[in-house]
Specification:
heterodimer, A: 374 residues, alpha+beta, three-stranded antiparallel β-sheet, B: 71% helix
């Protein structure tokens, strides 16, 4: 399909403006999109955000470094472990401490499991948006297994607060490694199952191929990151580019897509799930013995200064910019949320497509409004 | 059965009784089709489905119906009230009348119209008017888009459906629903074997006609909320729901009558397969045994009793069917209902397997593939029939 960007209606027909959201079944939360339509063809979109704004960044200024850690889980609540990892590592950098190797490996395992669970949620809802109801239940079945591991580890399933500044609060439970390994054996056939349902499906191909194309240069111009960027053919992954946690010692590949359409983004995420399993497998085998917590002062007073630390969250580059004035509370915490920035590409991707594609494109960006609005 | 009635009334008496019974029973049956759909869906999706109301959720349709009837009747302020009020009624009345004209068994007093199939198809076309008017009168964007989509979709797929039916009709040589089945008995073969292409086209077009996945654009939940019935609630919504499920039964019934031998058992002329006549007995007793076995696994005593009662009823019904007179009376209806159920099952199966087509893709399939194919099928059928004679 040609990705023209029409500016006017066909034959001077009346343009209608409709409001999609914030209470719409497929805006993945409380995103509001105002659509200018010619019949069903999209002439332009405008995102209205802020319905879930909780002032997370401002809250940080009134909490100590330790107190703020649970709040970051509430941003991208389907990838809370990743959020926590980014924050903890940023503060560790600021404090000039390093988490011990065992902690880094456990962090890597949990973060990669979290990436899988986030992608599973995305896959289920994305397929649901395109009218396939059943994959959602299958993906949730597998996601449940991951959440059980989280629950066994730290007691929480969704907003886990699994990590602490300087390492881990909890040692892994008995049977942790076995459970993770069992999941690694259980999960890959399930990915094949999803692919059997969707990848070869003619309807799925027609709905996703050529829809919402984002070219590599456009993606870079809009500072899009994560699977959306990689599907456009840019091989950029912070786990490789600026390794953190234990990624430098693990072997994995970065999947990219050739065309930057919805189908490529789908394939990239499917492949990422497989790669995550690969990472988890290696990490479980390599977990070193040793302490799980570095020496961190009871009362954290980082030296005056600022730090920007970013990690590859499931949705893209998640960055924390933290300014310290030497007190117990951060002077400023700024979060670079991947969803918020990826969402900018929505208008570019939607123009010239039909309403049905808008739904597919919102799904393919994989936004979580908790993070967009913060 | 002859009753002492004046000759002016006599021909109408039994059809009217049948119509009234159908009107009374069918909404409940539609509820159970919904339950079937939810149960099959749950099975496909690795979960249990409704389990709370009655054993295995068997009373769920009744609870749902009561809930819908007790809801507040809302007519939004900005609607075109009269049209808003009348459009679900158009949908449901046409659907029920069409249903009344379907001969589920040769023993039922269904009027034998010489334009039977044509009349039923016209009725379903009028039913579409209810959808269009409902979406239009809601005076709201999403229903309007839903109604627009319905109009385009149903109009184009009606053409394909019509041509597919023509293929079957050429073989059947009649428009009367009863005659069709009798002709299949006379020729000793279901028309699906003569017209496999027409049957496939009919089935695909029927999915589109009844707004089912992968052609459920008019009510694509993730795109345009609930489509044409977004603004409807309570009883009016229930009417649309009833019309939708009646339409599914109707298209499956037409397929059964025209292509699958109506109330006939498989291979009705093959003497060696006469034992199939006892299949209703086996099926009912088997179903009963299944319920009885299930009763043992129920947790609560009341559900145990409910399941056991149901199973017992099925077994007794199956055994009663051993009486030859009862068996003859029931077998036509049994086979018809079985075939229709298989059709509905396929609809549900497709619904929970496939994603949804996009609107323009749907149009392309309709106009570029189905309609040319259906026309070609008609032409080829005509040529073959000419050469055969």
């Amino acid at each position: 399909m040609a990705t023209t960007t029409p500016q006017a209606t066909f034959l001077d027909a009346n343009e209608i403006v409709i409001n999609m959201g914030p209470q719409h079944p497929s805006t993945h939360g409380v995103l509001r999109v105002i659509l200018r339509l010619d019949g069903e063809k999209v002439l332009g979109t405008e995102c209205v955000i802020g319905y879930l704004h909780r002032g997370v960044e401002k809250i940080a200024e009134n909490r100590t470094y330790v107190q703020f850690a649970p709040y970051v889980d509430r941003m991208d609540y389907v990838a809370a472990v990743s959020n926590g990892l980014g924050y903890c590592e940023a503060i560790e950098k600021l404090l000039n401490v390093e988490a011990p190797p065992r902690a880094r490996y456990v962090r890597t395992i949990l973060t990669e499991l979290n990436r899988i669970s986030s992608h599973l949620l995305w896959l289920g809802t994305h397929a649901l948006d395109l009218g396939a109801i059943t994959p959602l239940f299958y993906t949730f079945r597998e996601r449940e297994e991951i959440l059980k591991i989280f629950e066994n580890y730290c007691g929480a399933r969704l907003t886990t607060h699994a990590f602490r500044i300087g390492g881990l609060q909890y040692e892994t439970y008995d049977g942790f490694e076995e459970q993770v390994k069992a999941f690694c054996n259980y999960f890959p056939p399930k990915v094949d199952e999803y692919e059997a349902l969707l990848t070869g499906n003619r309807i799925w191909l027609q709905r996703t191929k050529g829809v919402g194309i984002l070219k590599a240069d456009e993606a870079i111009d809009m500072s899009v990151t994560g699977p959306v960027l990689r599907a456009s053919g840019v091989k950029w992954d912070l786990r490789k580019a600026k390794p953190y946690a234990a990624y430098a010692e693990l072997d994995f590949e970065i999947p990219t897509g050739p065309n930057g359409d919805t189908f490529d983004r789908y394939m990239v995420r499917m492949e990422e799930m497989r790669q995550s399993i690969r990472i988890v497998r290696q990490a479980v085998d390599k977990i070193p013995e040793g302490p799980i917590m570095a020496k961190v002062p009871k009362i954290m007073k980082p030296p005056v200064g600022e730090i920007y630390h970013s990690i590859e969250a499931p949705k893209g580059e998640l960055g924390y910019y933290v300014v310290s004035d030497g007190s117990t509370q951060p002077y400023r915490v700024r979060v670079r949320p991947p969803c918020f920035i990826n969402l900018q590409a929505l208008d570019r991707m939607c123009r010239g497509h039909l309403v049905a594609d808008v739904v597919a494109i919102i799904g393919t960006i994989d936004i979580v409004l908790g993070e967009v609005d913060r | 059965m002859q009753l002492p009635l004046p000759p002016a009334i006599a021909p109408y008496f039994w059809p009217v009784v049948y119509g009234v019974v159908l009107l009374a029973v069918f909404p409940l049956l539609a509820g159970y089709i919904v339950l079937l759909e939810r149960k099959v869906m749950a099975d496909i999706q690795a979960r249990l489905g409704p389990m709370r109301v009655g054993p295995h959720g068997l009373l769920q349709p009744i609870a749902d119906a009561v809930k819908l009837l007790l809801k507040e009747d809302i007519i939004p302020e900005m609607t075109d009230k009269w049209v808003f009020w009348v459009s679900p009624i158009i949908s449901v009345v046409t659907a029920l009348v069409a249903l009344f004209l379907i001969p589920m068994s040769d023993l039922l007093p269904v009027p034998d119209l010489n334009i039977g199939l044509l009349f039923i198809l016209s009725l379903t076309s009028v039913g579409i008017l209810g959808i269009i008017l409902g979406g239009w009168s809601s005076n709201s964007h999403y229903p309007l888009l839903g109604a627009l989509r319905s109009t385009a979709q149903l109009v184009s797929y009606e053409v394909a459906l019509g041509f597919a039916v023509v293929g079957g009709l050429m073989v059947a040589g009649t428009l009367s629903m009863q005659e069709m089945v009798r002709n299949q008995l006379a020729q000793g073969v279901w028309f699906v074997f003569y017209q496999p292409v027409a049957f496939l086209i009919y089935f695909i077009a029927a999915l589109a006609e009844t707004n089912r996945v992968p052609f459920d654009m008019p009510e694509a939940e993730s795109e345009i909320v609930a489509g044409y019935h977004t603004e409807y609630s309570g009883f009016r919504f229930a009417l649309y729901f009833l019309a939708e499920y009646s339409n599914i039964v109707i298209v499956c019934s037409i397929a059964t009558t025209l292509f699958l031998g109506g109330w006939l058992r498989p291979f009705p002329n093959v003497q060696a397969l006469d034992f199939l006549n006892y299949f209703p007995v086996v099926a009912l007793v088997g179903l009963g045994a299944f319920c009885l076995l299930g009763a043992a696994r129920e947790a609560r005593m009341i559900e145990k009793l409910g399941m056991a009662g149901l199973g017992g009823a099925f077994v007794v019904a199956g055994l009663v069917c051993l009486v030859p007179a009862v068996l003859t009376a029931i077998s036509g209806l049994f086979w018809f209902v079985l075939k229709v159920c298989l059709g509905i099952y396929t609809f549900i199966w497709i619904r929970f397997t496939l994603p949804r087509y996009r609107y323009d893709q749907l149009m392309r399939i309709g106009w570029q593939w189905l309609i040319p194919l259906a026309i070609a099928n008609v032409i080829v059928t005509g040529i073959v029939m000419m050469l055969w004679q």
